[in-house]
Design goal:
Layout lengths: L4 E7 L3 E9 L4 E10 L2 E4 L2 E4 L1 H17 L4 E8 L4 E4 L21 H7 L2 H8 L8 H10 L8 E4 H10 L4 E2 H4 L14 H6 L10 E2 L3 E4 L3 H7 L7 E3 L4 H7 L9 E6 L3 E7 L6 H5 L3 E4 L5 E7 L3 H13 L5 H9 L20 H11 L8 H27 L5 E5 L6 H11 L2 E4 L4 H13 L6 H11 L3 E3 L5 H21 L1
Parallel strand pairs: 1-6, 6-12, 9-10, 13-17, 17-18
Antiparallel strand pairs: 1-2, 2-3, 4-5, 7-8, 11-12, 13-14, 14-16, 15-16, 18-19
Helix pairs in contact: 9-16, 12-14, 14-15, 14-18
Length: 496
Protein backbone atom coordinates (compact mmCIF):
# COMPACT_ATOMS: atom_id res chain seq x y z
CA UNK A 1 0.00 0.00 0.00
CA UNK A 2 1.11 3.56 -0.68
CA UNK A 3 -0.15 6.98 0.39
CA UNK A 4 -0.21 8.79 3.73
CA UNK A 5 0.14 6.89 6.99
CA UNK A 6 -1.38 7.18 10.44
CA UNK A 7 0.95 6.48 13.37
CA UNK A 8 -0.69 4.70 16.31
CA UNK A 9 1.14 4.62 19.62
CA UNK A 10 -0.36 1.73 21.59
CA UNK A 11 1.04 1.58 25.11
CA UNK A 12 0.47 -1.50 27.21
CA UNK A 13 1.50 -2.02 30.80
CA UNK A 14 4.43 -4.22 29.71
CA UNK A 15 5.43 -2.80 26.32
CA UNK A 16 4.57 -0.08 23.85
CA UNK A 17 4.67 -0.02 20.09
CA UNK A 18 4.56 2.52 17.31
CA UNK A 19 2.41 1.08 14.52
CA UNK A 20 2.15 2.56 11.05
CA UNK A 21 -1.28 2.16 9.49
CA UNK A 22 -2.03 2.44 5.78
CA UNK A 23 -5.57 2.41 4.40
CA UNK A 24 -6.46 1.61 0.79
CA UNK A 25 -10.17 2.30 1.10
CA UNK A 26 -11.16 -1.20 2.18
CA UNK A 27 -8.28 -2.67 4.20
CA UNK A 28 -5.81 -1.48 6.81
CA UNK A 29 -2.24 -2.67 6.74
CA UNK A 30 -0.34 -2.33 10.02
CA UNK A 31 3.44 -2.40 10.32
CA UNK A 32 5.44 -2.16 13.52
CA UNK A 33 7.88 0.74 13.41
CA UNK A 34 9.22 0.50 16.94
CA UNK A 35 8.66 -1.57 20.10
CA UNK A 36 9.85 -0.56 23.55
CA UNK A 37 9.28 -1.45 27.21
CA UNK A 38 6.92 0.62 29.32
CA UNK A 39 9.15 0.90 32.35
CA UNK A 40 8.19 1.48 35.93
CA UNK A 41 10.62 1.96 38.80
CA UNK A 42 10.28 1.23 42.50
CA UNK A 43 11.56 4.27 44.42
CA UNK A 44 11.75 4.57 48.22
CA UNK A 45 8.29 6.18 48.30
CA UNK A 46 6.47 4.13 45.69
CA UNK A 47 6.17 2.69 42.17
CA UNK A 48 6.29 5.19 39.28
CA UNK A 49 6.02 5.19 35.49
CA UNK A 50 8.87 6.53 33.37
CA UNK A 51 6.64 8.76 31.23
CA UNK A 52 9.54 10.97 30.14
CA UNK A 53 11.19 7.87 28.71
CA UNK A 54 7.92 6.99 26.96
CA UNK A 55 7.78 10.44 25.38
CA UNK A 56 11.34 10.04 24.14
CA UNK A 57 10.33 6.75 22.50
CA UNK A 58 7.37 8.48 20.82
CA UNK A 59 9.41 11.31 19.33
CA UNK A 60 12.19 8.92 18.25
CA UNK A 61 9.63 6.70 16.52
CA UNK A 62 8.07 9.67 14.71
CA UNK A 63 11.52 10.77 13.54
CA UNK A 64 12.25 7.26 12.22
CA UNK A 65 8.94 6.96 10.38
CA UNK A 66 9.41 10.41 8.85
CA UNK A 67 13.01 9.57 7.86
CA UNK A 68 11.75 6.44 6.06
CA UNK A 69 9.99 8.70 3.57
CA UNK A 70 6.45 8.10 4.85
CA UNK A 71 4.01 11.01 4.87
CA UNK A 72 2.54 11.09 8.38
CA UNK A 73 -1.03 12.32 8.14
CA UNK A 74 -1.80 12.11 11.86
CA UNK A 75 -0.75 10.64 15.21
CA UNK A 76 -2.82 9.01 17.97
CA UNK A 77 -1.94 7.65 21.44
CA UNK A 78 -3.75 5.03 23.51
CA UNK A 79 -2.72 3.40 26.78
CA UNK A 80 -3.96 1.60 29.87
CA UNK A 81 -6.44 3.50 32.04
CA UNK A 82 -6.53 5.01 35.53
CA UNK A 83 -2.97 6.41 35.78
CA UNK A 84 -2.20 10.10 35.32
CA UNK A 85 0.31 12.90 35.53
CA UNK A 86 -0.16 16.23 37.32
CA UNK A 87 0.89 19.47 35.62
CA UNK A 88 1.50 22.71 37.50
CA UNK A 89 0.43 26.21 36.45
CA UNK A 90 3.67 26.64 34.46
CA UNK A 91 3.10 23.42 32.50
CA UNK A 92 5.71 21.38 34.37
CA UNK A 93 5.23 17.80 35.53
CA UNK A 94 4.74 17.89 39.31
CA UNK A 95 6.04 14.33 39.85
CA UNK A 96 6.44 11.08 37.99
CA UNK A 97 3.00 9.44 37.53
CA UNK A 98 2.15 6.69 39.98
CA UNK A 99 1.71 3.16 38.71
CA UNK A 100 -1.67 1.66 39.57
CA UNK A 101 0.31 -1.24 41.08
CA UNK A 102 1.87 1.17 43.61
CA UNK A 103 -0.81 0.18 46.12
CA UNK A 104 -1.23 3.35 48.17
CA UNK A 105 -4.77 4.02 46.90
CA UNK A 106 -6.09 0.89 48.60
CA UNK A 107 -5.74 2.54 52.02
CA UNK A 108 -8.25 5.22 51.00
CA UNK A 109 -11.10 3.04 49.72
CA UNK A 110 -12.84 2.83 53.09
CA UNK A 111 -12.39 6.56 53.73
CA UNK A 112 -13.83 7.39 50.31
CA UNK A 113 -16.88 5.23 50.88
CA UNK A 114 -17.37 6.84 54.29
CA UNK A 115 -17.60 10.20 52.56
CA UNK A 116 -19.86 8.97 49.75
CA UNK A 117 -21.72 5.61 49.95
CA UNK A 118 -20.66 3.01 47.40
CA UNK A 119 -24.14 2.91 45.87
CA UNK A 120 -24.01 6.67 45.20
CA UNK A 121 -20.56 6.46 43.63
CA UNK A 122 -21.70 3.61 41.40
CA UNK A 123 -25.03 5.25 40.62
CA UNK A 124 -23.17 8.26 39.21
CA UNK A 125 -20.05 6.74 37.63
CA UNK A 126 -21.00 3.08 37.03
CA UNK A 127 -17.37 2.11 37.58
CA UNK A 128 -16.08 -1.14 39.07
CA UNK A 129 -14.74 -0.64 42.59
CA UNK A 130 -11.01 -1.32 42.34
CA UNK A 131 -8.41 -0.16 44.88
CA UNK A 132 -6.16 1.37 42.24
CA UNK A 133 -8.78 3.58 40.56
CA UNK A 134 -7.80 7.19 39.91
CA UNK A 135 -10.18 8.35 42.63
CA UNK A 136 -8.29 6.51 45.35
CA UNK A 137 -4.87 7.49 43.99
CA UNK A 138 -5.96 11.14 44.11
CA UNK A 139 -7.21 10.83 47.69
CA UNK A 140 -3.86 9.31 48.69
CA UNK A 141 -1.96 12.16 47.03
CA UNK A 142 -4.27 14.76 48.53
CA UNK A 143 -3.69 13.36 52.02
CA UNK A 144 0.05 13.82 51.43
CA UNK A 145 -0.52 17.43 50.22
CA UNK A 146 0.73 16.37 46.79
CA UNK A 147 -2.12 18.10 44.93
CA UNK A 148 -1.31 21.59 46.19
CA UNK A 149 0.87 22.44 43.16
CA UNK A 150 -1.30 20.66 40.62
CA UNK A 151 -3.18 22.70 38.04
CA UNK A 152 -4.21 19.94 35.62
CA UNK A 153 -4.70 16.17 35.74
CA UNK A 154 -3.85 14.41 32.48
CA UNK A 155 -4.25 10.68 31.97
CA UNK A 156 -1.26 8.97 30.39
CA UNK A 157 -2.28 9.36 26.69
CA UNK A 158 -3.41 12.95 27.36
CA UNK A 159 -0.12 13.74 29.11
CA UNK A 160 1.84 12.51 26.10
CA UNK A 161 -0.48 14.43 23.73
CA UNK A 162 0.11 17.54 25.86
CA UNK A 163 3.85 17.17 25.47
CA UNK A 164 3.35 16.82 21.72
CA UNK A 165 0.92 19.72 21.26
CA UNK A 166 0.79 21.91 24.38
CA UNK A 167 -2.97 21.29 24.62
CA UNK A 168 -4.41 20.18 27.98
CA UNK A 169 -7.40 17.95 27.25
CA UNK A 170 -8.71 14.61 28.54
CA UNK A 171 -10.32 12.13 26.15
CA UNK A 172 -13.61 10.65 27.32
CA UNK A 173 -12.96 6.88 27.14
CA UNK A 174 -9.95 7.12 29.42
CA UNK A 175 -11.61 9.77 31.58
CA UNK A 176 -14.35 7.25 32.34
CA UNK A 177 -11.82 4.97 34.09
CA UNK A 178 -11.18 7.60 36.79
CA UNK A 179 -14.41 6.84 38.71
CA UNK A 180 -15.05 10.60 38.60
CA UNK A 181 -16.97 10.86 35.31
CA UNK A 182 -20.77 10.88 35.12
CA UNK A 183 -21.73 7.72 33.23
CA UNK A 184 -24.90 9.29 31.81
CA UNK A 185 -23.64 12.69 30.69
CA UNK A 186 -19.98 12.04 29.93
CA UNK A 187 -19.01 15.11 31.96
CA UNK A 188 -17.05 15.32 35.19
CA UNK A 189 -19.14 14.31 38.21
CA UNK A 190 -18.97 17.74 39.85
CA UNK A 191 -20.94 16.80 42.97
CA UNK A 192 -18.77 13.74 43.66
CA UNK A 193 -15.58 15.71 43.13
CA UNK A 194 -16.78 18.26 45.67
CA UNK A 195 -17.85 15.63 48.22
CA UNK A 196 -14.47 13.91 47.98
CA UNK A 197 -12.77 17.25 48.62
CA UNK A 198 -10.75 17.13 45.40
CA UNK A 199 -9.78 20.41 43.69
CA UNK A 200 -12.08 21.02 40.70
CA UNK A 201 -9.35 23.05 38.99
CA UNK A 202 -7.32 19.96 38.10
CA UNK A 203 -10.01 18.42 35.87
CA UNK A 204 -9.61 19.76 32.30
CA UNK A 205 -12.14 19.89 29.49
CA UNK A 206 -13.13 16.58 27.90
CA UNK A 207 -12.87 15.80 24.20
CA UNK A 208 -14.53 12.96 22.32
CA UNK A 209 -12.65 10.32 20.36
CA UNK A 210 -12.21 11.45 16.77
CA UNK A 211 -11.35 15.06 17.66
CA UNK A 212 -8.17 16.81 16.55
CA UNK A 213 -6.21 17.94 19.63
CA UNK A 214 -3.72 20.17 17.81
CA UNK A 215 -0.48 20.36 15.86
CA UNK A 216 3.05 19.79 17.08
CA UNK A 217 4.98 22.14 19.35
CA UNK A 218 7.99 23.77 17.64
CA UNK A 219 10.63 21.73 19.48
CA UNK A 220 8.73 18.48 18.72
CA UNK A 221 8.52 19.39 15.04
CA UNK A 222 12.24 20.13 15.01
CA UNK A 223 13.14 16.86 16.79
CA UNK A 224 11.00 14.70 14.51
CA UNK A 225 11.42 16.57 11.20
CA UNK A 226 7.64 16.80 10.86
CA UNK A 227 5.65 19.93 9.97
CA UNK A 228 4.18 21.78 12.96
CA UNK A 229 0.77 21.31 11.35
CA UNK A 230 0.92 17.50 11.77
CA UNK A 231 -2.31 16.71 13.66
CA UNK A 232 -2.47 14.76 16.90
CA UNK A 233 -5.85 13.02 17.06
CA UNK A 234 -7.74 12.15 20.23
CA UNK A 235 -8.39 8.47 19.53
CA UNK A 236 -10.32 6.18 21.87
CA UNK A 237 -7.36 6.63 24.18
CA UNK A 238 -8.12 3.87 26.69
CA UNK A 239 -6.47 0.92 24.96
CA UNK A 240 -9.48 -1.31 25.60
CA UNK A 241 -11.77 1.26 23.97
CA UNK A 242 -9.51 1.29 20.91
CA UNK A 243 -9.39 -2.51 20.92
CA UNK A 244 -13.19 -2.77 21.10
CA UNK A 245 -13.46 -0.54 18.02
CA UNK A 246 -11.58 -3.36 16.25
CA UNK A 247 -13.79 -6.23 17.45
CA UNK A 248 -14.58 -7.89 14.10
CA UNK A 249 -18.20 -8.74 14.94
CA UNK A 250 -20.92 -8.10 12.38
CA UNK A 251 -23.28 -7.29 15.27
CA UNK A 252 -22.91 -6.59 18.99
CA UNK A 253 -25.98 -8.76 19.67
CA UNK A 254 -25.18 -12.04 21.48
CA UNK A 255 -21.48 -11.15 21.28
CA UNK A 256 -18.91 -10.50 24.00
CA UNK A 257 -15.24 -9.61 23.84
CA UNK A 258 -12.15 -10.38 25.87
CA UNK A 259 -9.43 -7.82 25.34
CA UNK A 260 -6.59 -10.07 26.39
CA UNK A 261 -3.27 -8.58 27.44
CA UNK A 262 -1.64 -7.73 30.75
CA UNK A 263 -5.24 -7.25 31.89
CA UNK A 264 -8.20 -9.16 30.51
CA UNK A 265 -11.24 -6.96 29.96
CA UNK A 266 -14.35 -9.12 29.59
CA UNK A 267 -17.49 -7.38 28.42
CA UNK A 268 -20.14 -6.38 25.92
CA UNK A 269 -21.01 -3.20 24.03
CA UNK A 270 -24.24 -1.34 24.85
CA UNK A 271 -25.98 1.88 23.91
CA UNK A 272 -26.49 2.96 27.53
CA UNK A 273 -24.82 2.34 30.91
CA UNK A 274 -26.27 -0.24 33.30
CA UNK A 275 -26.35 1.29 36.79
CA UNK A 276 -28.62 -1.20 38.51
CA UNK A 277 -28.18 -2.70 41.97
CA UNK A 278 -27.41 -6.06 40.33
CA UNK A 279 -24.69 -4.49 38.17
CA UNK A 280 -23.11 -2.91 41.26
CA UNK A 281 -23.33 -6.18 43.20
CA UNK A 282 -21.53 -7.92 40.32
CA UNK A 283 -18.93 -5.08 40.35
CA UNK A 284 -19.32 -4.51 36.61
CA UNK A 285 -17.89 -1.34 35.12
CA UNK A 286 -19.48 1.05 32.63
CA UNK A 287 -16.70 2.66 30.61
CA UNK A 288 -17.35 4.92 27.68
CA UNK A 289 -16.67 3.61 24.20
CA UNK A 290 -16.27 5.17 20.81
CA UNK A 291 -19.32 6.83 19.29
CA UNK A 292 -21.28 7.23 22.52
CA UNK A 293 -21.34 3.52 23.32
CA UNK A 294 -20.87 1.95 26.75
CA UNK A 295 -18.46 -0.89 27.45
CA UNK A 296 -20.05 -2.96 30.21
CA UNK A 297 -17.19 -5.11 31.43
CA UNK A 298 -15.10 -6.40 34.28
CA UNK A 299 -11.34 -6.25 34.76
CA UNK A 300 -9.77 -9.69 35.24
CA UNK A 301 -6.11 -10.00 36.24
CA UNK A 302 -5.14 -11.43 32.84
CA UNK A 303 -1.73 -12.32 31.46
CA UNK A 304 -0.04 -10.24 34.16
CA UNK A 305 0.04 -13.52 36.09
CA UNK A 306 1.95 -15.26 33.30
CA UNK A 307 4.28 -12.29 32.86
CA UNK A 308 5.15 -12.25 36.55
CA UNK A 309 5.59 -16.04 36.70
CA UNK A 310 7.95 -15.84 33.75
CA UNK A 311 9.86 -12.92 35.31
CA UNK A 312 10.34 -14.98 38.48
CA UNK A 313 11.73 -17.86 36.43
CA UNK A 314 14.07 -15.49 34.58
CA UNK A 315 15.40 -14.25 37.92
CA UNK A 316 16.12 -17.88 38.82
CA UNK A 317 17.94 -18.56 35.56
CA UNK A 318 15.89 -19.08 32.41
CA UNK A 319 12.27 -19.24 31.27
CA UNK A 320 10.37 -20.51 28.23
CA UNK A 321 9.37 -18.03 25.53
CA UNK A 322 5.82 -16.71 25.59
CA UNK A 323 5.10 -18.78 22.49
CA UNK A 324 5.99 -21.98 24.37
CA UNK A 325 4.00 -21.37 27.55
CA UNK A 326 0.71 -22.75 26.24
CA UNK A 327 2.40 -25.88 24.92
CA UNK A 328 4.08 -26.38 28.29
CA UNK A 329 0.78 -26.00 30.16
CA UNK A 330 -0.99 -28.42 27.85
CA UNK A 331 1.32 -31.18 29.05
CA UNK A 332 -0.11 -31.03 32.59
CA UNK A 333 -3.36 -32.78 33.62
CA UNK A 334 -4.55 -29.61 35.38
CA UNK A 335 -7.47 -29.26 37.74
CA UNK A 336 -5.80 -27.00 40.34
CA UNK A 337 -7.61 -23.64 40.54
CA UNK A 338 -7.47 -20.25 42.24
CA UNK A 339 -9.17 -16.87 41.88
CA UNK A 340 -6.98 -14.81 39.49
CA UNK A 341 -8.24 -11.58 41.05
CA UNK A 342 -6.92 -12.10 44.57
CA UNK A 343 -5.50 -8.80 45.92
CA UNK A 344 -2.09 -10.32 46.64
CA UNK A 345 -1.65 -11.12 42.93
CA UNK A 346 -1.92 -7.46 41.87
CA UNK A 347 1.58 -6.28 42.75
CA UNK A 348 5.00 -7.41 41.45
CA UNK A 349 6.77 -10.13 43.39
CA UNK A 350 7.20 -13.88 43.71
CA UNK A 351 4.13 -14.84 41.70
CA UNK A 352 4.78 -18.63 41.62
CA UNK A 353 4.88 -18.71 45.44
CA UNK A 354 1.75 -16.57 45.74
CA UNK A 355 -0.20 -18.78 43.32
CA UNK A 356 0.88 -21.95 45.12
CA UNK A 357 -0.22 -20.45 48.43
CA UNK A 358 -3.60 -19.48 46.96
CA UNK A 359 -4.14 -23.02 45.69
CA UNK A 360 -3.18 -24.52 49.05
CA UNK A 361 -5.49 -22.12 50.87
CA UNK A 362 -8.32 -23.47 48.73
CA UNK A 363 -7.63 -26.98 50.01
CA UNK A 364 -5.89 -28.16 46.84
CA UNK A 365 -2.48 -29.57 46.15
CA UNK A 366 0.09 -26.96 45.16
CA UNK A 367 1.08 -27.00 41.47
CA UNK A 368 4.64 -28.22 41.82
CA UNK A 369 6.34 -28.02 38.44
CA UNK A 370 6.21 -25.36 35.74
CA UNK A 371 3.63 -27.07 33.50
CA UNK A 372 1.26 -27.54 36.45
CA UNK A 373 1.65 -23.92 37.54
CA UNK A 374 0.96 -22.60 34.06
CA UNK A 375 -2.01 -24.93 33.64
CA UNK A 376 -3.44 -23.61 36.92
CA UNK A 377 -3.10 -20.03 35.65
CA UNK A 378 -4.72 -20.69 32.27
CA UNK A 379 -7.57 -22.84 33.60
CA UNK A 380 -8.30 -20.33 36.37
CA UNK A 381 -8.36 -17.46 33.87
CA UNK A 382 -10.73 -19.34 31.55
CA UNK A 383 -13.00 -20.16 34.50
CA UNK A 384 -13.02 -16.49 35.55
CA UNK A 385 -13.93 -15.49 32.01
CA UNK A 386 -16.97 -17.78 32.15
CA UNK A 387 -17.86 -16.41 35.58
CA UNK A 388 -17.90 -12.83 34.25
CA UNK A 389 -19.75 -13.74 31.04
CA UNK A 390 -22.43 -15.50 33.08
CA UNK A 391 -22.68 -12.45 35.39
CA UNK A 392 -23.15 -10.14 32.42
CA UNK A 393 -25.89 -12.39 31.02
CA UNK A 394 -27.63 -12.36 34.40
CA UNK A 395 -27.41 -8.57 34.83
CA UNK A 396 -28.46 -7.61 31.30
CA UNK A 397 -30.75 -10.47 30.27
CA UNK A 398 -28.68 -10.93 27.11
CA UNK A 399 -27.58 -14.31 25.81
CA UNK A 400 -23.88 -14.46 24.92
CA UNK A 401 -23.18 -17.05 22.24
CA UNK A 402 -19.92 -15.81 20.75
CA UNK A 403 -16.75 -14.42 22.33
CA UNK A 404 -14.14 -12.41 20.39
CA UNK A 405 -10.68 -12.60 21.95
CA UNK A 406 -8.60 -9.63 20.77
CA UNK A 407 -5.13 -8.39 21.62
CA UNK A 408 -1.94 -10.27 22.41
CA UNK A 409 -3.71 -13.09 24.23
CA UNK A 410 -5.50 -14.05 21.01
CA UNK A 411 -2.22 -15.70 19.96
CA UNK A 412 -2.42 -18.17 22.87
CA UNK A 413 -4.27 -21.04 21.20
CA UNK A 414 -4.32 -23.09 24.39
CA UNK A 415 -6.04 -20.35 26.41
CA UNK A 416 -8.48 -19.63 23.58
CA UNK A 417 -9.49 -23.30 23.38
CA UNK A 418 -9.81 -23.50 27.16
CA UNK A 419 -12.04 -20.42 27.05
CA UNK A 420 -14.30 -22.09 24.47
CA UNK A 421 -14.36 -25.39 26.38
CA UNK A 422 -15.05 -23.95 29.82
CA UNK A 423 -17.42 -21.15 28.78
CA UNK A 424 -19.27 -23.48 26.34
CA UNK A 425 -19.25 -20.66 23.78
CA UNK A 426 -17.67 -20.24 20.35
CA UNK A 427 -14.46 -18.19 20.42
CA UNK A 428 -12.97 -16.16 17.58
CA UNK A 429 -9.41 -14.91 18.04
CA UNK A 430 -7.94 -11.80 16.43
CA UNK A 431 -6.80 -9.24 15.59
CA UNK A 432 -3.64 -9.35 17.68
CA UNK A 433 -2.95 -5.62 17.38
CA UNK A 434 -6.59 -4.70 18.00
CA UNK A 435 -5.86 -1.53 19.99
CA UNK A 436 -3.50 -0.20 17.31
CA UNK A 437 -6.03 -0.99 14.58
CA UNK A 438 -8.80 0.74 16.51
CA UNK A 439 -6.47 3.69 17.07
CA UNK A 440 -5.89 4.01 13.31
CA UNK A 441 -9.59 3.61 12.54
CA UNK A 442 -10.52 6.51 14.82
CA UNK A 443 -7.85 8.64 13.15
CA UNK A 444 -9.44 7.77 9.80
CA UNK A 445 -12.82 8.75 11.25
CA UNK A 446 -11.40 12.14 12.26
CA UNK A 447 -10.52 12.75 8.60
CA UNK A 448 -13.88 11.55 7.29
CA UNK A 449 -12.52 8.40 5.64
CA UNK A 450 -14.89 6.15 7.62
CA UNK A 451 -18.28 7.11 8.95
CA UNK A 452 -19.39 4.57 11.56
CA UNK A 453 -18.48 1.65 13.82
CA UNK A 454 -20.24 -0.69 11.40
CA UNK A 455 -17.97 0.46 8.60
CA UNK A 456 -14.91 0.24 10.82
CA UNK A 457 -15.64 -3.37 11.75
CA UNK A 458 -16.17 -4.33 8.14
CA UNK A 459 -12.67 -2.97 7.47
CA UNK A 460 -11.31 -5.03 10.38
CA UNK A 461 -12.90 -8.21 8.98
CA UNK A 462 -11.36 -7.46 5.59
CA UNK A 463 -7.96 -6.80 7.14
CA UNK A 464 -7.66 -9.67 9.64
CA UNK A 465 -7.39 -13.45 9.69
CA UNK A 466 -9.47 -14.90 12.53
CA UNK A 467 -8.91 -18.24 14.24
CA UNK A 468 -12.00 -20.05 15.54
CA UNK A 469 -12.40 -22.38 18.52
CA UNK A 470 -15.51 -24.43 19.20
CA UNK A 471 -16.26 -26.04 22.58
CA UNK A 472 -15.26 -29.69 22.59
CA UNK A 473 -17.64 -32.52 23.46
CA UNK A 474 -16.45 -32.97 27.07
CA UNK A 475 -19.21 -30.78 28.52
CA UNK A 476 -19.47 -32.71 31.79
CA UNK A 477 -15.73 -32.49 32.46
CA UNK A 478 -15.56 -28.73 31.98
CA UNK A 479 -18.75 -28.03 33.90
CA UNK A 480 -17.32 -30.04 36.80
CA UNK A 481 -14.08 -28.03 36.66
CA UNK A 482 -16.04 -24.78 36.60
CA UNK A 483 -18.14 -25.94 39.55
CA UNK A 484 -14.95 -26.49 41.56
CA UNK A 485 -13.77 -23.02 40.56
CA UNK A 486 -17.02 -21.53 41.88
CA UNK A 487 -16.41 -23.40 45.14
CA UNK A 488 -12.89 -21.92 45.34
CA UNK A 489 -14.29 -18.40 44.90
CA UNK A 490 -16.96 -19.04 47.53
CA UNK A 491 -14.27 -20.25 49.96
CA UNK A 492 -12.23 -17.07 49.37
CA UNK A 493 -15.29 -14.93 50.07
CA UNK A 494 -15.93 -16.73 53.34
CA UNK A 495 -12.31 -16.65 54.54
CA UNK A 496 -11.11 -13.41 52.91
Amino acid sequence: MTGPVHVAFDLGAESGRAMVGRFDGSRIELAEARRFPTRSARLPDGLYWDTVGLFSELTSALAEVHASGAHIRSVGVDSWGVDFGLIDANGSLVANPLSHRDGRGAAFVAEALNRVPAEDVYGTTGIQLLPFNTLFQLLALDAASALSRAATLLLIPDLLAYWLTGERRVEETNASTTQLLDARTGDWAEELIEKFGLPRRIFPSIVIAGSIVGGLLPHVAEATGLPRSTPVTAVASHDTASAVVAVPAASAKNTAYISSGTWSLVGIELDEPVLSTRARAANLTNERGFGGTTRLLKNVMGLWLVQEVRRAWLRDGEAPSYADLGVLAEGSPGGVLFDPDLPELLTPGDMPARIRAACARGGQSEPGDRPALLRAVFESLACKYRFVLDEIESVTGRTIETVHVIGGGSQNAFLCQLTANISRRAVFAGPVEAAAMGNVLVQLYAFGDVASLTEMRQIVRSSTHLSSYEPDSATERWNELYGRFRAVIDTEVLTG
